Amino acid sequence: MKNYTRKLIFEDGSQYHGYGFGSERDAVCEIVFNTSMAGYQEIISDPSYTDQAIVMSYPLIGNYGITDEDFESKMLTLGGLIVREVNDSPSNFRFTRTLSELLEDNDIPGVYGVDTRKLVRSIRDHGSRKVLITNEDTPLEEGLKKLSETELRTDQVERVSSKKRWYARTSNPKFNVVAIDCGMKMNIVRELNRHGCNVTVVPYNTSADEIISMNPDGVFISNGPGNPEDVSEVIETLKKLRGQKPLFGICLGHQLIALSYGAKTYKLKFGHRGGNHPVKDLKTGKIEITSQNHSYAVDDKSVEGTGLSVSHINLLDNTVEGLCSEEDKVFSVQYHPESAPGPQDSTYLFDRFVEFMTND
Questions:
Q1: pLDDT of 173 over the 80 cut
Q2: What is the pLDDT of residues 191-228, one digit of tens each?
Q3: Among residues 42, 72, 158, 338, which one is catalytic?
Q4: How would you write the chain as a 3-class SS string?
Q5: pLDDT of residue 1
Q6: Residue 339 has what pLDDT?
Q7: Which pLDDT score, from 0 to 100, does residue 251 have?
């Protein structure tokens, strides 16, 4: 067996050994796991993973390479990637780069050869926490010192949001939607376009007055990374927008809508990440298999008296998965109805947004 070249160090002194691919730099990240069996390109290009080291529970990653059309963001902002086995000889007529080349081009460290079964179980048992990705010869004491001295950043949304307004137009549009970009996936824009919406994407700190001046038919609040309580600018904007225009929020956007109504959020032990979470629509009784990626959730007890009602729940842990105010024409979901990757059970939510705008 060849000698290990890279390793992970945790604050409790535990270490996981493997081999490097992609960038060779050290990185301190929050470690999380994803249970998806496919879609690694969409996952690592999702801005919601900013500063996080992703452990893929599926054992073989990279086997169909990287394609130019499948990015969710042009800028990779994840902290690192940990896999059991990486395939750098992909079999796919569409591929233009290997996974290793993509990580190297974007200065993202990767580690393979790790026992990801044990690592995922550790995250489930002990929660998401800080980890150092470093060289195998880094002394444990030095790694622990680096971990203790490094604070995880809280400005992720500011870093990944658009810096200026941009447009995504469609043929024969029926609606104009302003999308507040907190780290938005491109497939959300594509889905809005497919539903007849011209989309104006604006930076996260765009004011309510500026958004109203664009005279949109509806306002969309995107997914994104980090703690929703750190994004006070969007919370204040939503307080002024609610009741004026139909609002639709996904993931971080769902949490921000909840906070703008006075509800509370909290951090989950290890979050929800993957394309296999069952969610129940309380209105219809139907169960959807959903794609998810988040660390925080809305406190169900705090929703009462806010004007919002719980519309969806997660059947694995009973966490809040959807909120709605029929009076204000506001609704949100914690999961990703646009998927990419994931099941297509929840695309009807874009139809609901269109219905709200039609009847406004």
A1: yes
A2: 999 999 999 999 999 999 999 999 999 999 999 999 99
A3: 338
A4: CCCCCEEEEECCCCEEEEEEEEECCCEEEEEEEECCCCCHHHHHCCHHHECEEEEECCCEECCCCECCCCCCCCCCCECEEEECEECCCCCCCCCCECHHHHHHHCCCEEEECCCHHHHHHHHHHHCCEEEEEEECCCCHHHHHHHHHHCCCCCCHHHHHCCCCCEEECCCCCCEEEEEEECCCCHHHHHHHHHCCEEEEEEECCCCHHHHHHCCCCEEEECCCCCCHHHCHHHHHHHHHHCCCCCEEEECHHHHHHHHHCCCCEEEEEEEEEEEEEEEEECCCCCEEEEEEEEEEEECHHHHCCCCCEEEEEECCCCCEEEEEECCCCEEEECCCCCCCCCCCCCCHHHHHHHHHHHCC
A5: 75
A6: 87
A7: 98
Q: From the candidates 195, 254, 312, 336, which is the catalytic residue?
A: 336
The answer to whether residue 251 is catalytic is yes
Candidate list 251, 288, 294, 321, residue with the active-site label: 251
pLDDT digits (tens, 9 = 90+) for 81-118: 999 999 999 999 999 999 999 999 999 999 999 999 99
